[in-house]
Design brief:
The chain contains 13 helices and 10 strands. With 387 residues, the protein is α+β, with helices and mostly antiparallel strands. The structure holds zinc ion (ZN).
């Protein structure tokens, strides 16, 4: 939505009614953003690009990267030199904005089902609201956490060369993006269509860029529906009860409430996603991640014990290739190998260089999903993929 806020009008907005002129303006904006020097000093934006057009109260929120994502969605993505990779500019005349809705943007049954689900989950929740009147997007609002948490939801967003199904952008606080991919097994994880490595790479890149990424499958939607009608036990604990208790113990040691782990972590990924949107508290979620990894350590097998960084690198290699463990060293890093309940191999690295108190330890975990033809299309592999 473009509108004029200057009393009496700026006098030039009517020129943007011409689609070619509007496109040229957006392209100029993209060129300016791509060239701005603030990208080299790690700033979200600066006075040369966005700040001098931004109200004071939004200075901390406005982001060059978010602006580029929105422009990529309108115009199509560009490569690092600003060359258009795929022209997505499309213009349609409409009588009024109410004719545009999120449903029109939805491209698959899975997405339609997620959107329908989202409306139901929110409708059932007295502390949440989802408004989507007359825009090609929706606004999700949670009111039961300290202050309100608000997200702007759009469908089919461009992020560099990958396209997410749904994107939540936080609009009440620090810039933050949650991207959601809805993956059908048949189109992602079978011998005929195996995109596992490419999926992992694209999503890994988004995570490195600071996005929080959720991957949701048809089964997750199925199981959540059944769970809501009370037909099945909550789904998908990644590992056994004892390991879950270990995880809760670590969570408590880190200073959080023991009872607030399981409902957020040992559950359907959709429930985890909604819990995150409701309260995206970075400290709490970082502790939950650590606790989830720590839960597995008592049942994990050591691969490299008390090694330095180089030794840890070798340890991760041997954990991945299944070769023998090395001899203990005098460093502060431990590498372990474990499997979750679906048989998915995990490699854990525990780095106590900064100290051995729970809050000083740095944790890393790799989940290893085999994508070779020999294992694809087996029930075991499908289960690991879903996990
Ligand atoms: Zn700048």
């Amino acid at each position: 939505m473009v509108y004029d806020r200057l009393p009496g009008g700026t006098g030039y907005l009517h020129r943007l009614l011409d689609p070619a002129a509007f496109r040229a303006t957006l392209e100029d904006a993209r060129r300016a953003l791509l060239a701005c020097r603030c990208q080299d000093d790690g700033r979200r934006a600066c006075h040369r690009c966005l700040h001098r057009h931004t109200e004071e109260r939004f200075q901390d929120v406005v982001s060059r990267r978010a602006a580029l994502e929105i422009l990529a969605e309108l115009l199509g993505p560009v490569d690092e030199h600003g060359e258009l990779l795929d022209d997505r500019w499309q213009v349609t005349d409409l009588a009024y904005t109410g004719q545009i809705g999120l449903d029109r943007q939805v491209e698959s049954d899975l997405e339609a089902r997620f959107l329908a689900g989202l409306r139901t989950w929110i409708a059932d929740d007295p502390a949440a609201a989802f408004d989507e009147d007359g825009h090609d997007s929706g606004y999700l609002r949670f009111t039961d956490t300290t202050g309100a948490v608000r997200w702007w939801l759009t469908a089919q967003q461009e992020h560099g060369r990958t396209r997410s199904d749904f994107t939540f952008r936080r609009i009440d606080g620090p810039a933050e993006t949650v991207t959601v991919y809805l993956d059908g097994h048949r189109n992602h994880a079978t011998r005929d269509r195996n995109t596992l490595a490419a999926d992992a790479e694209k999503r890994g890149r988004l995570r490195a860029d600071g996005h929080t990424v959720f991957q949701i499958t048809w089964d997750d939607l199925d199981l959540l529906d059944k769970q809501r009608s009370g037909a099945v036990e909550p789904v998908w604990p990644p590992y056994q009860r004892t390991a879950q208790l270990n995880a809760a113990e670590t969570y408590a040691q880190l200073g959080s409430e023991r009872g607030r782990l399981a409902d957020a972590v040992f559950t359907n990924p959709i429930t985890t996603m909604l819990a995150y949107l409701r309260n995206p508290d970075g400290t709490e979620w970082a502790r939950r991640v650590v606790a989830a990894i720590a839960g597995l350590t008592p049942s994990a097998a050591p691969v490299a014990t008390a090694v330095d960084r180089a030794g840890a690198q070798r340890g991760v290699q041997s954990a991945l290739t299944g070769t023998a463990a090395g001899r203990p060293g005098s460093g502060a890093i431990h590498v372990l190998r474990a499997t979750d309940d679906s048989g998915l191999p995990l490699v854990l690295a525990i780095d106590a260089t900064r100290g051995t108190a729970p809050a000083d330890i740095a944790w890393s975990a790799l989940a290893v999903l085999d994508d070779t033809d020999g294992v694809l299309d087996t029930p075991e592999h499908t289960r690991r993929w879903r996990a």
